[in-house]
Amino acid sequence: MPNPACPLFPVVAAALIDGAGRVLVQQRPPDKQMAGLWEFPGGKIESGEAPEAALVRELAEELAIDVAESDQTPVSFASQALAGKHLLLLLYLCRQWVGTPQLLDAVALQWATPAQLRELAMPPADAPFIAVLERHMKE
């Protein structure tokens, strides 16, 4: 019997990389699904919104930083079935932004090297991005 179609849940995330080669991750608050896990900042793509525009909006809302669409480089994606929907997570690298990331939508922020990211509890869709980041940081 065929599975009923699951609605697609498109999400964008940023790997903000500082001058020391560290990536910013944030810890999910206790009132959200997957509470306490560390993730790359980002969020849902709204209806009719381009992924890059969604990432600009989400980073402003979550971290109070400004990122130009031209400073985002798409590098990877993850696809995962969730309860009643299907997650499509698009990851962008970003090495330039204006402002200092602020703690607005999470319980903690942390700058970590890819090796340090391996020690953090991350959502299943985010964890495979660590190897992608290691490759891109060597370039």
UniProtKB/TrEMBL annotation:
Residues 7-134 form the Nudix hydrolase domain. It comes from the Bacteria. Its EC number is 3.6.1.55. Gene3D superfamilies: Nucleoside Triphosphate Pyrophosphohydrolase (3.90.79.10). GO terms for molecular function: hydrolase activity. Its cofactor is Mg(2+). The keyword DNA repair applies. It catalyses: 8-oxo-GTP + H2O = 8-oxo-GMP + diphosphate + H(+); 8-oxo-dGTP + H2O = 8-oxo-dGMP + diphosphate + H(+). Keywords: DNA damage, DNA repair, DNA replication, Hydrolase, Magnesium, Metal-binding, Mutator protein. Belongs to the Nudix hydrolase family. This is 8-oxo-dGTP diphosphatase. It comes from Sphingomonas qilianensis.
